[in-house]
């Protein structure tokens, strides 16, 4: 039986459209994902980025949960150094009170932005031990007493909600933290392919089901992969140039909205982005083979896919084709 399949959304904004339109398209995709049988839908936190409207993840999660019925909805993730852990507990406790047991809280240490913006946002430390302590306090606020483990502060709105906590990471540091805390690990292999195998070994070796923070009894990995499914391999390769252009912009320090797809040959001279090595792009048979190979390589318990498209209808068509071949 195939592993569960989930979706990472960043509420992208295409050239000529607005953040309002990008968010509306994301909500349409949320409804579709719910109908098609995807396991969870996560929103990633980003700031000071022209092509993404996923800055306030809790608000996007609440709206997506409001327009869906079954799918789990959560953060992929909340960049904890940008926030007060107490505020995160209150926000996600409120979400769980409103929407029930469908809310996930994925936590990362990266700022999700540039250094200047990170400084403007910063509320807690990204240092590994401080990050782990913040997770420990969050679990206290989600526990029956609603009290942090390290301070006598009560969060009534999160008490007893027990929102599942995930650790996100792209390196061995995040993997080690997730393992030592006994928490599920979501690896950002869709944009950080170089340390995947090492990081997963570190996570599994470090996993401690006896940790006071442990929420699962054995390692659980959700791995990210870029996906574009189309009716033909050539069409999928052309549509994938949207994300390739976006990553080229990142490397060049260029800020613009998502650009229309182009002939892949026009990008060939620049070479493919090394950040996008982990992908499944093509018609259904090719994508199925590539996804199966990635699961075999990583031993992933779940896949989380990310699909950028200039036209939201192209993304939704890809999700439909992917659901047909996977579920």
TrEMBL record:
Family, similarity comment: To bacterial alkanal monooxygenase alpha and beta chains.
PANTHER family, per this entry? LUCIFERASE-LIKE MONOOXYGENASE
Out of the domains of life, which is the source? Bacteria
Q: Which Pfam families match?
A: Bac_luciferase
Q: Which residues form the Luciferase-like domain?
A: 7-248
Which InterPro entries does UniProt cross-reference here?
Bact_Lucif_Oxidored, CmoO-like, Luciferase-like_dom, Luciferase-like_sf
This chain belongs to the protein called Alkane 1-monooxygenase
């Amino acid at each position: 039986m195939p592993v569960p399949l989930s979706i990472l959304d960043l509420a992208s904004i295409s050239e000529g459209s607005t953040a309002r339109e990008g968010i509306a398209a994301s909500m349409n995709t949320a409804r579709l994902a719910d109908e098609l049988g995807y396991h969870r839908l996560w929103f990633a936190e980003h700031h000071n980025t022209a092509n993404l409207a996923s800055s306030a993840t809790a608000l996007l999660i609440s709206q997506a949960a409001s327009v869906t019925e079954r799918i789990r909805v959560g953060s992929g993730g909340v960049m904890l150094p940008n926030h007060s852990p107490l505020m995160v507990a209150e926000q996600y406790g409120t979400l769980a009170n409103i929407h029930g047991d469908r809310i996930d809280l994925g936590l990362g240490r990266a700022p999700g932005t540039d250094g200047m913006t990170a400084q403007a946002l910063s509320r807690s430390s990204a240092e590994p031990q401080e990050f782990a302590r913040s997770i420990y306090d969050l679990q206290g606020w989600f526990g029956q007493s609603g009290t942090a483990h390290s301070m006598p502060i009560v969060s009534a709105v999160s008490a007893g909600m027990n929102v599942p906590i995930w650790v996100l990471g792209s390196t061995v540091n995040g993997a080690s933290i997730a393992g030592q805390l006994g928490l599920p690990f979501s690896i950002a292999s869709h944009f950080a392919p170089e340390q995947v195998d090492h990081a997963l070994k570190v996570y599994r070796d470090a996993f401690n089901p006896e940790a006071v923070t442990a929420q699962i009894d054995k390692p659980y990995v959700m791995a990210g992969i870029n996906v574009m499914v189309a009716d033909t391999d050539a069409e999928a390769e052309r549509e994938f140039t949207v994300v390739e252009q976006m990553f080229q912009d990142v490397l060049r320090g260029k800020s613009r909205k998502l650009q229309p797809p182009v002939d892949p040959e026009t990008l060939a001279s620049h070479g493919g982005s090394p950040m996008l090595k982990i992908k499944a792009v093509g018609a259904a048979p090719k994508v199925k083979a590539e996804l199966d190979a990635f699961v075999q390589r990583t031993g992933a318990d779940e896949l989380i896919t990310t699909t950028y498209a200039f036209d939201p209808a192209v993304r939704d068509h890809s999700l439909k084709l992917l659901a047909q071949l996977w579920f």
